[in-house]
Design goal:
alpha/beta, globular, disordered N terminus
Length: about 280
């Protein structure tokens, strides 16, 4: 499967970019085998040591959403072998008006989104993965709050990223991701406007495959419909604890697989949509 080598290629991308910038290569492996910092070392290592990226900073001088948040960005072709079908949709299934409308407008008008949160509705969102089609490749961006105080900035950054898109594409996002984001934005007083149309692939998948599969969870569809088998993933129930540990200790090496998990979820959404149009 294509994502079997994704973790190693993420590391290679990071090392290559650092080499071009004259920086040391560093570990750069997005899996559980990443070596933790040596014991006794007083140097605090951030996610920047493992994943390429930079800071997004609010343009406002103060107020809600002011601050910085880390953004990891890459092209899908940098982590998977490019496929001829990327960016193309076949014939939308009968009765799926939202998919048909998106297919008519083109994938450039859609923003794929998946969140990693600390669990309950009152807990923070710390990682938001997005993906969009730029006409030749998929661009993946992951907005990461390095501590609880950066959540407001993450929401502001995500709101800016969502501007100009007609469709928000999620998996179970109508029940979870969208209301969760709106609720957290209200807590922080951040203005957050999501794309006006929302395509929730879970509902379309249930209508299409509920009689064929034991369930329509994302990873069930990924395996049986998209023919993709995950490796090196982190169980979803472990994600909140890994983030809390990172905030307490500052050691990112156990958190990096969460970025990998989030990246796969967003990529799988595009594959599910393609399968729906097959």
């Amino acid at each position: 499967m294509a994502d079997a080598t994704l973790r190693e290629r993420l590391g290679a991308i990071t090392a290559a970019r650092r080499a071009r910038a004259g920086e040391p290569a560093g570990p750069g492996r997005a899996d559980r085998s990443v070596a933790p910092p040596e014991r006794g070392s007083s140097e605090r290592v951030g996610v920047e040591a493992f994943l390429s990226g930079g800071e997004w900073r609010s343009e406002s001088a103060g107020g809600a959403g002011c601050g910085a948040v880390f953004v990891h960005e890459c092209l899908r072709s940098e982590v998977e072998r490019r496929r001829a079908h990327w960016g193309r949709l076949g014939t939308p299934p009968a009765g799926e008006t939202e998919i048909a409308a998106l297919a008519q407008l083109g994938l450039e008008r859609a923003l794929f989104l998946d969140l990693e949160t600390c669990g309950l509705n009152s807990s923070p969102v710390f990682l938001a993965g997005t993906m969009h089609w730029n006409g030749s490749d998929f661009v993946l961006r992951q907005y990461f709050a390095r501590h609880y105080g950066e959540e407001g900035t993450l929401l502001a950054a995500l709101g800016e990223a969502a501007r100009g898109y007609e469709f928000l594409v999620t998996f179970n996002g109508k029940s979870y991701d969208a209301p969760f984001l709106i609720g957290r934005a209200l807590v922080h007083g951040v203005g957050l406007t999501l794309p006006p149309r929302h395509l929730d692939l879970l509902h379309a998948a249930r209508r299409r495959w509920r009689r064929e599969l034991p369930d329509c969870r994302l990873q069930t569809l990924e395996l049986h419909i998209c023919r993709r088998r995950r490796s090196g993933d982190v169980p979803g129930e472990e994600v909140p604890g890994l983030y809390h540990d990172f905030v307490r200790s500052g050691d990112p090496w156990r958190l990096v697989p969460v970025f990998h998990h989030n990246l796969l979820d967003v990529i799988t959404m595009a594959e599910i949509m393609r399968a729906l149009c097959s």
